[in-house]
Amino acid sequence: HNHPSLFRLVKNKTTETMAAAVTRRGKKKAPTPKKAAQDVSHGDVTEEESIHDDDGDVPMDDVDAIPEISDKASDGEGNDSNESDVKEEDMDEDTNGKSKSKKSNKNKKKQPNEATAIPFMDTFYQLSSDDANERALAARDLIHHCFFSDNGLNAKDAAYAITRLLNGLCTGRAASRQGFASCLSSFLRMAYSSDGGTLMTILKEDEFAKALLKDGMDDDEGVDGKTPAIALRQKLLTTTQFIQPEEKGKKGGGDKFGGKMKGMEERDHAFGRLFGILAMVRSGVLGLDEFPSSVTEGYTQDLIELYSYKKWMREPAANAIIELVSSLDTGVVEDVTNNVIVPKLLAAPKGKMQEWMCTLTPEQIAVALHLQMPQNKSSKYSYPLDKPLLTTQSLPTLASALSSTSTAVHPRCHIVWNAMWLYLTEDIETHRQLRSDESSQIIDALIQKVVVDVLLGKGEGGSSPTNERKSLALQIVSTLAGSSGLQIVLPSSVISSVLCPEVVEGVFMNVLCASGGIGKKKGGDNDGSSVDHHLKPLTASNLSNFVENCSEVDFVERRMAFAQAFLSVDPRFDVKTKTQTVTTLLMMENRSADLSEKHEGHRAAIWGRYLSLLEEQVVSAKNLHVATVYIELMFKLAKRDLSVAPAYLTRRVVRFFMSAAFFDCSGLMDLAKVAASSKKKKKGKKTSAHESPSVEASLELSSGLRIKELLNSHELQGIPYSHRAIMSARFFSLLSDFVSAINAQNRGGSKGKSFYGKVSRPEAVYRALSEVSGICSLLETSGAKLFQIHTDANGNDDSSSEAEEPMLASRKHMLQVKKIADDALVEECGGSDDSELLRAKAVFATGCGALMMSMYLQLNSCGVPDTIDEDNTDDDTDAVHEYIADLADSVANFCAAVDTPSRSKGEEERENPLAAMAGLLVNILSSSVGGEDTGGKNAIQSSASKLTRETVKLAWSGSISMISGLHAKEVEYGNFVDEDVMNILIEAVCGANSTKEATDGDYESAEESESSEDELEDGGGVFADASKSGMDLDEVGNATDEDDESDKKMTATENDEDVELDPSALENLLLEDSDAEMSENGFGQLEHHAGADAALAQLIKLKQEARKASQSERERIEFCNRLRCITLLESLFSASVFKSGWIPVEAVLGSIVPILQSRKAITKSIQAASSTSAKKSLNEKNAMVDRLSILIKDKISKFRCNGDDEAGKVALKAASDISEELNRSLNLEQSSCCSVALITAVRCIPNAEGCEEVKQIYVNAANDWRSRKGTKIHACVFEDLIHRMPSLATVVLVEPLVSAAKSAHSSFLKCEALRLVSAIYRQELPKSGDESENSLSEAAHEAMKACCSDVVSALKEALNDAATQKSKNKDEVLNAAKNIAAYCKSHSRSLPSSDLNSLKDAVKVFRNNCKSKGLQKSCNHLADVLSDLAKEAGESTGETKQAKTPKSSKKKKSKK
User: What is the pLDDT of residue 262?
Assistant: First the structure.
């Protein structure tokens, strides 16, 4: 109640009150009460508890919330609580019978509405309650007592009630004003609705009104005082008098107000009068025909007096005037306005309209705008309301008054704004829209003159905006943007005016991006942390409401208008504000599967317009930074579109980047469209059916034509070189992502869409690149000029034939390969008996064609730099030309091999086409064309290399498919995968020296090796001279320090002087010979220069560090190239190739040892890396080690051969070499790789179980493992063999493992040996591998049976060994015993009873040594099993003794 203003921007009820005035003006009859009282419960009663509540203007109880009173016919209805009481009584009626029913009847007599009636005098106290439900019930009972008592109207109590209600308006206790004003409104409505004399009867019982009526006093306007309305108004004025009579000079005060009134009492009476008048207004009686117009004018004048009373009373009084006027008929409004409002409130001197508007307050503007509503056009108001107040010309004058409303802080907004929005808009079904074009102009002027110039301080002489002004600006913008209860929907053309750059920056950006200063509050911590701007939550909420309130009307246009407004200020709006505003507006956060077909169409339209906006911004960008930001936004949008095939938007971005980066589109023309237009001139309307070709051509040239249009519209000569370079890099990146999306599985969305139909991936990629390459050719033929990278001596483009000759040759090769691919596709579609071979040829040709076009696209250039400062990065055009020529030859040779596979006897040995292809692909991947840019400066080449790598995979897989097709058709050509092919691949993956015999000393890390070539570089002589002179570089600094310490008179600056580290300065210092004394022979002797030794040491150190850094970088690039080349080897060693059976065993097994050696060397270099420069390549080295491990364990391990004698010899040799590598393993991982590789080689040996060489390999390994402490062999070698080849493992490992279990040099190895032996004897076999390998052979069964006794002997020793008493060893030994027992149980006669009994006794001894109850229980169970097995073994051999007959119990007792 202490706040200076009672009202705020109305959202629900006040809007209805002001906007629905016409409806209420049509009422000619008195309001009638409802027939039945409504149910009243705590949840049904609504009330505005405070003057700052969100849902109303004056904080009175809603009249509709008060249960209305009717006649006795409504006695059968009651509230929810009463109904529940009745139900409870009915439930108890079965037990108490008559007593309950009598009590119910008594209650019905006491309360007409089945509710406990509140005593009449207590209702006044309940009307002040803070509980809205209690106030509603009290008002209901009070009105019922006065109008519906047993004798009808209780006039005396009703007169008393009026006096009490009027007095209650003047108290501020609890919720008195709300309750008493609401009850008074309902009371008056009931009094007027009963009959014409009810109110007069009640007033005659009031002493003050009775005296007034008896004396016939005239009111202020000179009307008969006997009118009840006049008497009631006079009583209200007397009761709520807040100005002393001697000050006012009028009647009605009495001696009661003669004394001086306190300030709080004066304020309470002023509010009481306001609430009383509004109670009259909301009762609806002012709109009755018989209600005196003079009284209405009197109430209006009373409100104007309240307006003039205090400043804080202006807004509530103005709101009350608006509500009063809204309840009147049009004719009455005109009289009240001309007679009272204009003279008393809006009086303006003639001819001084401008000066008068300067004096207007916001409240006066609100009243005037409400009176000038369009629905009041028929009313004829007097000057100054005869002309519109709010115009584009008057807004600058009214701006000061409107901006002063910023004192009304959120969530309340001044009433003038609500009146303005209702004045400018009209209500339709779901929202409000502008009334006319003039409203749009007014809003434009409002934003500029009020929001921008005044509230944000952008105008001339404007001050810095305060937080209150920013808050008001935010509310104005938010309301116009549709994020308020009014739901205003502006046209898309007006949104740009509302969200102008000044507004977006001042209202949103500056608040959401605030990092300190004004608007920031320091946190409570001592670390100085701060919290966000206090307007940030409100601003972020309004931003989210912009999106939520985007109606279906102009859905696409509105979203784009909002997004464009934010992007125009900062294209990285979301990133800087840390919101998702633009992303959500553009529907970029939703997946396609989550959108309906309708919204998917909306998103496509939005993205299309968004892309057009980005295209314009890129072309018209003034600097590189802005252009880069918009290019990145285009790239991000295209990447987002890649998730759904066919990705038309991505293709459009690719066309735009290519057209802008590589072509001068100023001379571009759509030739097809020109030709079509010329035909129209000749043939007229007959050519309308032939317009489709021009449409297709326009689609392919659309991006180039768009660029030409934008350049002309912005009057630009062209796109700068730096911008073109960025787009070139993004072109290749996006195209490579497009190719990756085509290659990826399950790409194309959930709706069955695909990029190019149901075709193979190489063909799909080939079509995509053919489309891009075709557009390039079409652009050139249509007038676009391709930028040239060659320049003459003056720096101009060199278009000579020498520069164009390589390009023409490469184009010829590209077209040649493209023709081969097209012919292969046509032959495949034709169909024949050789469909598999034709299919393989098509895959090969399309893969190579894709690679050819990807490299040919790299020949396109961004042109010559615009300025000398810009670097024209050297690309590898010569290398690309060479690779294109080599690829064309390789494809031709491969196709010739397919067409003429047989060789004549006299024909010379032809070159292996696969070797040529492998060498070419390795060279591409190892160069900057398909690898990594050595200098790291050419961003374009780095982006293009990704595309090249994708197509290299396709070309290589196509080559492999070609060989598979030839092998499937049994075409005899020879061995494709020969020694040359494998040497190329192994050297590319494992290093240059990998194919030679290597030892441990051949592999040195970057830390250990030193290049002699580096010593020959510039400055190498310094190292040589230092070495010859015998200088110890590590002690030079110490010697220098000792010399310095000897001179104690040196200044502090000389002692602390830093040594210059610039190499050139150091060399100049060393070569300084100003003090040299030349001899006759011309040789001088340099004197010792102070600091020369330290400078020399620093120079040498710099040279060393530079050499190490360059060496480390070269090493890193080498490993990157090797990582890329390993994909070729992985494709060659794939399961499909192994299954086809055409790859020779020499190629597979011969590559294992170099791979193992390379892995070992890389692992050693990782372990030896200590310096910072050496650690730069650790990631690449670790990745290489992982890839090599996967290659051996997951790829090569799946190889199977036919098993002939020649293959056996090769496999045996490979197994011997691998065993040597196994004995030199570095760690467990290396040993595991060697183990898998050894098994792969052994599998290729025919009858490996009977091969002594194989057995000797594993026996030697087991003996070395058990006997030598420094062994490099790990238990995984034997585990892998047991898991992958159980039969061979049983034959060759049982005996050496049993020996290891007995005589290993440690108890741990003994337990490990027992664990491995138990794995062999385990009944459950491994599940992996073939059935033939998992099924044990007869030799394996015999070996297991033969070694059972030795195994039992080893188990007995382990059970009795004290070293096995560790918990882990106990478990291993006990599990081994269980497995042996299980084996004996399933294989009878495998052990004699003596061995079983001895094992049982050992188990019992082991049990006694165990403290764990679980182990003891397991031992008891195992002993019982062994006992049963011993009995069975004895029975089978006849060793069991005859069983003794048990003695009787009597004999046992006698014996005792």
Answer: 78
